[in-house]
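Lab meeting notes turned into a lecture example. A postdoc, R.K., suggested we walk through two folding results consecutively so the class can see how the record format repeats. The first protein's sequence and structure tokens come next.
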Amino acid sequence: MASRVYFSFHYTDVETFRANVVRNHGLTKETGKAGFFDASIWEDAELHGDYAVKRLINSSLENTSVTCVLIGTDTWKRRWVRYEILKSYDRGNLMLGIHINNVPDKNRQTFAQGRNPFDFLGFTVSTDGNKLTFQEHNGTDWGIYQDLSPKIVNWGSQYWGKGYKFSAWVPCFDWTGGDGYNNFSTWVDGAK
């Protein structure tokens, strides 16, 4: 059965068409099937209140099993991309990232690879193993992530009192260099 994929991206990458190259690549294949279903949202988050945006993201994540973060120049620091990543983890979605700055934009320009947003997100496990607190890095320091409450867990003692970055296990690919057109389904199947 095909995975139902939630795409997370910075809205600027839609305006320059790079995000759409990935999201719509299945439409140009001979079979017309990409092996996944798109469940992302298009609304500009800035036009809604915080509660409405969270509710919109949460409902869009329903019935998805994989979250694919399309990584452009500033994706790593976007508030709602961070929320989509952490909420995806919180609900058990598998995740992967795809760098899209090598995809020519509407002006046929490419850009240097953007920073990996999974390097700037993680969590700590309490010293008794009963609470997971989401963390974010602002480019200078780590701090407690404010848009999601800590999660009650029951982790083994080997994890107690430790912190983890998502980049330690979430795979990232380059759309152009990794032939995403032909390999996307394989990448989704291998999401962590």
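The second example is placed directly after the first for contrast:
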Amino acid sequence: MTAAPDLERIISFLRDDLEQVERVMRAGMRSVAPVIPTIGEHTFGSGGKRVRPVMVLLAARLCGYRGPRAIQIAAAAEYLHSASLLHDDVVDGAETRRGRPSVNARFGSKLAILVGDFLYARTCQTLVEDGDPDILAAFSESIRAMAEGEVLQLTRSFDPEMSESTYLEVIGGKTSSLLAAAAEAGAILGGVTRSERRAVREYGWQLGLAFQLVDDALDYAGSEQDLGKAPLTDVSEGKLTLPLISTLKRCSTGERDAISSLLKDFALQSAAGRVPDRESVQRVAECVERHHGVESALSRAQQLGSQARAQIEPFVDCEAKRALLAFADFVVGRHS
């Protein structure tokens, strides 16, 4: 795989817009409860690639819009993403996020949930203030899909029978739905035709699937320094992702039975509040490596990245289109 293009270089022309988005995001955390802006700063200050705001801004420019509404919608997209992360970390019992203590680890689960709720409310408030019913509908659908994806994943935890189609439903809800809404919102701002709007939304959807596939592959193949968390976290938490799902389809009956037994043990340990021992988790990872599960996931991500690119090829050449094409290459070629 060739090296991923540098994201900062790809979107350098958005620097001023992204600085405005950051200011709007922090202004939106003002509250009579001082802990809310404190947690907001902890959340927004931990880095992140701002993929969702970038998607809004690039899609808007692709479709001919460069006005101030894009800044507000981009901030709303990041509010929504951040809210989901706060809640996810509580559900998962995550101790770190991007190499720093998670909000629930530092401030407690109750505050993490409540500030996540605050961010969901700020998302809705920002979208209502914008006043476009189509944009509001796109993000409302994403909120539903994100919650549904989380519930589906949780209820299929530690389940070796989980299918690839169910996995794609999970990541479609958890990841793709928001990137699709962000892209579609930009297209709506540009006032393009219905078919063009669908194409831009599909670009976001396909890229979201590719993004999550790479994330899930890196959980098996990445380092803690690159990931900002311990590798092999997903399988420890009972999340069956494509590297393991494809492995379970290819491996011998004996290997499948062994992994199924390990997953059952992991579930029992999780229910008792314990973390699976590293040696057992490593045995699962070794099986994934033997059967090229990571390579399978990355190959699928490459296919999805190509499909995403194809969606916007018909658009007129411009700086935003070139950036979106390079953005797809970045997503499938990144190492963290």
